[in-house]
Amino acid sequence: MNLAYIASPGDRILVTGSNGFIGAKVVEILLEYGFSKLHCFVRPSSQLGRLEKALDQFDAGENVELIIGDLLSRDDCEKATEGVSIIYHLAAGFDKSFAGAFMNSALATRNLLDAFLKFGKPKRFVNISSFAVYSNLRLKRGALLDETCPLEEEPQERFDAYGFGKLKQEELVREYGRNNGLPHVIVRPGAVFGAGKRELSGRIGVDTFGIFIHLGRNNILPLTFVDNCAEAIVLAGLKPGVDGETFNVVDNELLTSRQFLEAYRKAAKGFRSISIPYPLAYGICLLWEKYSKWSKGQLPPAFNRRRCAAEWKGNRYSNRNLHEKLGWEPRVPMAQAMASYLSQFGTNGTV
Amino acid sequence: MLRVAIIGCGKVADQHVNAIRRITDCRIVALCDRELLMARQLGDRFQISSCFSEVDEMLKVAKPDAVHITTPPQSHFSLASQCLRAGSHVYLEKPFAITAEDAQALIDFADKCGLKMTVGHNYQFTLEMLEMRRLARKGFLGGKPVHLESYWSYDLGDTSYVGPVLGNPAHWVRQLPGQLFHNIISHGIAKLAEFLDDELTEVVAKAHQSQELGGLGAQEVLDELRVLIRDKSGTTAFFCFSTQIKGRNQLHIYGPAGTLSADIITGSLIRNQTRSFKSYLTYFVPPLNNALEHLRNLRLNVADFIRRRLYQDFGMKELIERFYNSIRLGGPPPIPYREIILTAQIMDEIFTQIYGDRASKPLTPMRPEPAVATGE
Ligand SMILES: NC(=O)c1ccc[n+]([C@@H]2O[C@H](COP(=O)([O-])OP(=O)(O)OC[C@H]3O[C@@H](n4cnc5c(N)ncnc54)[C@H](OP(=O)(O)O)[C@@H]3O)[C@@H](O)[C@H]2O)c1
After folding, report:
1. Every domain of chain B and the residues it spans
2. Which neighbouring-strand residues pair with A84?
3. What integer is the mean pLDDT of A20-45?
4. CA-CA to A178 of 20 to 30 Å: which in A214, B31, B322, B376?
5. Do A296 and B9 count as a contact with CB atoms less than 8 A apart?
6. How confident is the model at residue B370 (pLDDT cuts 50, 70, 90)?
7. C-alpha atoms less than 13 angstroms from C-alpha of B181 in its C-beta half-sphere
8. pLDDT in tens, B187-209
């Protein structure tokens, strides 16, 4: 056993959302680290391309056990957690409805936590959260947003079903930590990018109105390349002495929204955008929010002050915790990460 | 003040809460879901503190006047019976019941209890459908409809819903006798049922699987349905459900003297009086009339937007409000029971024709016999 880790290769590890954009990379890096007693949880409807690609790279990939089920089923959670020591919980609800997002994020997590305590040999539960749980409403533009930043108190007002699900999921994990002594770590990745995910982060802008509106402008983006992010997640599950900690994940060299969009524009030819400064965006969001309230939801409050601040106000970010407590270093530098991301748009620039 | 409870706190319950909050003189007093966490997440967001996981307890403690049931259809019969037995009026989400026999039994039971029921056919109460009904009653069609057409499209693009359904044969949608159709088509069929006689002489249903759905990996799930119906007095109807025709939720009614076309997606109603024009005027006047009709719809929609009436759930709010009024004032429920039963009968027949035996034997064990209410 590597003394630097809390688990040995003989320990059984469960990865949920293992066929997802980040989950498949987590599996790949675990295999690379020599952990092959993996349970990879996938839903029956999953098209397994990503995961198969990850497994095919390693001989030990053959030992990996696919657990087919749904985390909403307690029986499936039991099957998945049997004898498991570490859980990397990446599955999440991306549904647009609050109930749907809550179900696949929070309810699924509750089932998993119960099963882990009952049928597993818990060493650590790694809960993958998100920057969406933060509220920077009271932070100044350009202020540092780190793990101590307040969490969103009004996800309903922010009209963010995904963020609501992730907040409730975190609450549950902390509650199980407090009440059941469950060792856990919370990882909050920033904007994860890489080949396999073409969409631009909402922090750059929106294309709701037929043309892309660039709102991020000179803001620094909390970027993390998928391989780097996955390695941070893996380390959060293995390093000793970090139980109860929370880690924001961003890379070392961060780009501004304008820099990212310029690179994207070159690769995705024919892409057009207009740019709106933050005060104007804020004013529009304020009016939208007020009109939505006054009209009793004739327009849903899709644009509102809370969302505007969270996505486009602009902050600085730190990965000090990652470096100091997990000994993490980004394995892929930004230039290489961008090249990998942009390569998916083809040489002719078609998106 | 009408005391309301909701059983089933999934996606559609949010819509119900929003619609109920637009109605005066009523209050949501309890939320209930087998998963207490689901009830609580809804309660947290709408400041409703009374949350339950047991229906019996909720009915006993909260004593609601009316209960909205927004659970999967397999549970409708037993939950509705339970609520009726406890003395509550019931709003059941669509489909009302798994079979017409169950629908009839529930309605008989409600009558016996002196309580009211309705079904979540909210698209019957959108602004253009209300206007269509008003015109039809006023005689715009010039008599009983000769022919009806109802189109209902459903976009598979949102795979967050169909993905889990297709991938999992045990999913509750897959357990319905009519599978995917069963959960969706009642909106479009109910539009026809409103204008058809109770006695049908013919129903011919054909269904197949689209290439797109096949590509998503489901084997026996069908998603393209065409139905021809004829009633005893000779009115014919055509129903089309499609995942491949995008954005078309329409009802066309052809009468001897006029035609009405309601488009639920664009919120418009096109009126067309059957008239012939001399010579070349045929080419000029009707297109001009049509253009004016569309302009009229634009004007009405803008006016409704300014008056804050063009919100998404207008139909649901209208249906709920009418249901509550029928409870308070003792009038008939907003959707006649005959329509609920006829809709269920047409659906039964469709599923038997396209799925054969599978549809005539529902897969999930259902319904304990309802017992007469003892409470009220
Ligand atoms: N991508 C980002 O920029 C970002 C940023 C911050 C945080 N995160 C977090 O990182 C994690 C992974 O994100 P991702 O981008 O990799 O998302 P993804 O590609 O959509 O993966 C999510 C996975 O969750 C699975 N899932 C959802 N509901 C489930 C259920 N009820 N039972 C079992 N599996 C279920 C999905 O399975 P199917 O394949 O069957 O749909 C999918 O594979 C999430 O927790 C997310 O909140 C992501």
Report:
1. 2-120, 124-315
2. A12
3. 96
4. B31
5. no
6. very low
7. 32
8. 999 999 999 999 999 999 999 99
DSSP string, A140-182: PTT-EE-TTSPBPS-HHHHT-HHHHHHHHHHHHHHHHHHHH--
Complex prediction ipTM: 0.92
Interval between CA A310 and ligand 1 midpoint (Å)? 21
Q: Among residues 259-318 of chain B, which lie with CB inside 8 Å of chain A?
A: 305, 308, 310-312
A256/A217 Cα distance (integer angstroms): 7
- Which of B44, B47, B156 has the highest number of chain A CBs within 10 A, making it the mutation to test binding with A? B44
Distances (CA, A) of A93 to A50, A99, A304, B173: 19, 10, 22, 20
All residues of chain B having their beta carbon less than 8 Å from the beta carbon of residue A110 are: 37
**A298 with B310: Cβ contact below 8 A:** yes
Among A43, A96, A107, A311, name the best residue to mutate to test ligand 1's pocket (greatest count of ligand atoms within 8 A of Cβ). A43
SS3 state of residue B152: strand
Q: Which two tokens stand for residue A269?
A: 């030819």
Fold match, B2-120 / B124-315: no
B134: buried, middle or exposed (CB in 10 Å: 19+, 13-18, 0-12)?
Answer: exposed
pLDDT digits over B98-134, tens only? Answer: 999 999 999 999 999 999 999 999 999 999 999 999 9
Q: Taking the domain A12-198+222-253+316-332, which CATH number applies?
A: 3.40.50.720
Could you give the percent of chain B with pLDDT greater than 70? 94
Q: Which of residues 114-153 of A touch B (CB under 8 A)?
A: none
Q: Of A110, A245, A243, A90, which is closest to residue A173 (Cα–Cα)?
A: A110
Of A45, A168, A298, the CB nearest to B41: A168
The answer to whether A204 and A174 have CB atoms below 8 angstroms apart is no
Q: What's the predicted TM-score (pTM) here? A: 0.92
Among A298, A99, A292, A157, which residue's Cα sits nearest to residue B317? A298
CATH of the domain spanning B2-120: 3.40.50.720
**How far A208 CA sits from the closest chain B CA (Å)?**
17
